[in-house]
Structures
1.
Amino acid sequence: MKVIGIVSAAALTAIVATACSPMKSQSPSGIERLYVLDCGINQGKDQSRWSPGVNEGKPIEFSDNCYLIRHANGVLLWDTGIADAVAAMPDGLVTGGGAITQRRTKTLAAQLAEIGVKPADIGYVAISHTHGDHVGNVALFPTSTILIQTVEYEWAMTQPTKPAFAATQNFDKLTGDRDVFGDGSVLILSTPGHTPGHQSLLVRLPKTGAVVLSGDAVHFRDNWDNRRVPSMNTNRDQTIASMQRIATVLAEQHAQLWINHDKPQSAQLRYAPAHYE
Ligand SMILES: [Zn+2]
């Protein structure tokens, strides 16, 4: 059965309750550390591409983060960012039909080396969605299992620019939510709308508390506050429902929302080699 479209408020509450119920009476979180990694910047020519009717014609710069979670039972990387090859391009990489310039100052590979993590150590690479600023380095992890929604994988393979997966890549294709380590500490949340199989990540850190990593469920704080839907999203109603779903999870889990592309918010985070516990 494919579940696509708007979910009723009651059904949504039930889904959230089901997804989160194992965590309420759970054993302590097995997470040891979360690192925030600098996965590049996007320079947009016109902010209104992401916030229709607002700041038309004004440029904007986004942060682009990856996140590495060390859990007692394995290592998970959330998103892989802009391709490391872009770090060697003095003028960056122009994408999106000229709308965006991608840049990188540090490679993902170098940041992982700095914290003593080898690609082969990373059992899971979970990707929020298949846009280039999130899957740019996915082929650096040829032995990792990719956690991706089935609908996202199928959609991506119909797109003009397909993700550059490694030939040996293992896939664990999901339909809906996934409790990655089985202890409720790292939970993939299905949040479609930006793309057909977009997903976000609820991370329940032992000291910091719960954090939702947005993916591109929302791009900026102001868009979150106003529930704005970017023009390139594949489904407006799903986008709004996903934002509401995240708001419910934030309230229930007393969680922070870390908006990946929100540069002012990212500037407040501690990047690797610092970490969160
Ligand atoms: Zn993005």
2.
Amino acid sequence: MMKWLVNSYKFFLGMAIVITITLCLFMMGNGSAIAGSASGNLLKQPSINVTANLSNSAGELKFFPNNLEFTTGKRYKLQLTNPSPQKHYFTAKDFADAIWTQKVEAGNVEVKGAIHDLELKPKAQADWVFVPMKPGNYQLRCSIAGHTEAGMIGKIAVVSGK
Ligand SMILES: [Cu+2]
């Protein structure tokens, strides 16, 4: 009888510890994403610079490169340049929904908050600073009439950093 009591006591104590650890891990997991964007810990991380061009000086309707890859939980500065003689868009709505945008810097202006697409005039440059949150494969395109159809498209992959 006594042994049974001790064994069930151990069992319940073990269960309680497992549940407590699980709850703690769950809360830490949830908290880190929020803490990352809110507390600024992540913002102290030096950014990983990635460059992409919208078209080129010859005016080809392509992105250079047309394949981009990012990792969740890292801070990036995507440096976009339009070296062509006409305006282009960097449109990636689902990608924009899968990241946390810190800011977009262009000229002397910093735009904070959610961004879905950027229009770059000829010779324009803009830096998009963000932290990818959700892994997935996302479509990139230029939404100027006819440009997507002409092949001004690309792929953006977000891979899990865990
Ligand atoms: Cu275009």
3.
Amino acid sequence: MALPRSQARGWVKAAKMAQRRRRAEDAGGPNTQSPAPGSRRAALYVHWPYCEKRCSYCNFNKYIPRGVDEAALRRCLVTEAQTLLRLSGVRRVESVFFGGGTPSLASPHTVAAVLEAVAQATHLPADSEVTLEANPTSASGSRLAAFGAAGVNRLSIGLQSLDDAELQLLGRTHSARDALQTLAEAQRLFPGRVSVDLMLGLPAQQVGPWLRQLQELLRCCDDHVSLYQLSLERGTTLFTQVQQGALPAPDPELAAEMYQEGRAVLREAGFRQYEVSNFARNGALSTHNWTYWQCGQYLGVGPGAHGRFIPQGAGGHTREARIQTLEPDSWMKEVMLFGHGTRRRIPLSELELLEEVLAMGLRTDVGITHQHWQQFEPQLTLWDLFGASKEVKELQEQGLLLLDHRGLRCSWEGLAVLDSLLLSLLSRLQEAWQQRTPSSVPRG
Ligand code: SF4
């Protein structure tokens, strides 16, 4: 099933040469042209479901294993990738993202096997972005080098904080020192291709000390930073601690202040805020995530993974949300029986797709260009939808939104309050959709 070793080595070698070439020529991030809705291109997400330990705030689909049969899991990931590529009819995979869970706990051999299967089933260009999420404690220099040899060319490090007390509160397995060491090793191995996550809005966290952490990070980080606000999720240890009064509830106003100050600091340091939570300089935007925000197709492989694609290879014409079975053992049984562990397929209506185009596109600084919108909805233009809207005019007057010859997008100020803008914009879209005249009802 896998590529002959020589062919697989060929792909990794070509990928490395292309990566070097791209570094030398780097002109400014991913191709921001949006893929046509029914195109045969896609991004591929691979979910590794295991972690060493449960972080106190985490409600992701992850499991603490009592022994993983990695060879069996690897076979299932490969099989499901092959099946979904066939069902989708995708001819070109533009990026691969190994997320989790903690995919840096997987063996580099597993990563290589999935990449080999993808390269065999479809076109995986040599300069495709291949990202691995890494936790500092499971990402020593030698492991990172082995992931590089397996075909990974970008790392996303779950650093979260540079304060040991905060890391303990979050239940992380690493210290600030581990985080900085991993960051240094990652940059040595993947220069210009390392992203770090930093959290804000923790219980009792104050603006000044958090900003000092960000400044410290800026002295040693690479070209990509993600800022995430802690979200207190029911069922997590942190939620219970706050409920029981053992910890103060996070203060949303302080979190908003950290976010505002943090994005200003990053801008000052030459980072472009290209998405609500993501900042890059030297064009180091994440190609993979850009596909999500542009509503491109993506396949989700692994327990609980989500995908969005038109199953053209199986004669489908409608984009579907596809959700894989959550629990790893059940998922593996299904993959062994049916070739995939898809638990739910939800066809998306035209309106639902447009709502996603709007909500996802406005997360980026580019917003939604007229050309991009037209690929999804050729009848109702952005001008038809929003040009005469009183609410949109008000948002423009407040300096939060722009509608012009380029398209619809948030201003710098608007990006920080996107959720409140979306309420008006989505309800305007829904209203216009109901009022379409018969001649504007698109293709059947
Ligand atoms: S490492 Fe990530 S996925 Fe695993 S428990 Fe912690 S936050 Fe959750």
4.
Amino acid sequence: MADQMSGGCACGRVRYSATIENDEAYLCHCRMCQRATGSVSIAFKNVKQADVKWDGEPDWYDSSPIAIRPYCRECGTSIGFQFKEGSENMDLTVASFDDPTRFKPKHHFGAESLHRAWINTERLPEYKTSDYDVLVKKWVDATGKMPE
Ligand SMILES: [Zn+2]
């Protein structure tokens, strides 16, 4: 069933709502996405361009001869990816959704530059933000509470 889901950048200047048809998403490992996001990979949800309504227009980074990327010039959040021509679809970054929890990775793309050491991380110890006393004190001193 299709749902309307909202999202946006870290500072809130760029906001969107998008029609989401299913829970399928993917990880892109290509070097262009690694460089554009500064991340080892980026989680994307593919949607129809016509199903994305902007409320607070994004800025568009002309990232290559074939693609542009929506982002926020104020806070720098990467919001997605779009081919300049030849596709009615675009990608939105999974973590820019207000509730990213429903999406599940269904495949890896750009596997030629996949950093394998970052894929299988289940064996690593896990620490919560709230376990790091120095960070908790900084937040509480600055705002009275931890961020949501
Ligand atoms: Zn922003």
